[in-house]
Design goal:
Length: 75
């Protein structure tokens, strides 16, 4: 599992450890906590914008063609 001889990804698979929504929630919570330490408010609109960027990044970079295009697998 950790040293395969050949590695292929199904075209409908995703290559991330967690989904975009989960990652966006975790990262926004971390950012919210850091801003809270500085007594800085974070509006709901700013938080949603932050989450949207993370979700889009996971959607684009989690695609198997993204990995294949970078030769992370054997096509």
């Amino acid at each position: 599992a950790y040293s395969p001889r050949m590695l292929w990804t199904w075209p409908n698979a995703r290559i991330s450890v967690m989904g975009g929504e989960q990652a966006a929630s975790v990262l926004s919570q971390v950012k919210r906590d850091k801003l809270g330490e500085k007594n800085t408010n974070w509006s709901a609109e700013d938080e949603e914008s932050f989450k949207k960027e993370i979700r889009e990044q996971y959607e684009n970079q989690g695609h198997p063609y993204y990995a294949t295009g970078r030769l992370w697998d054997d096509g």
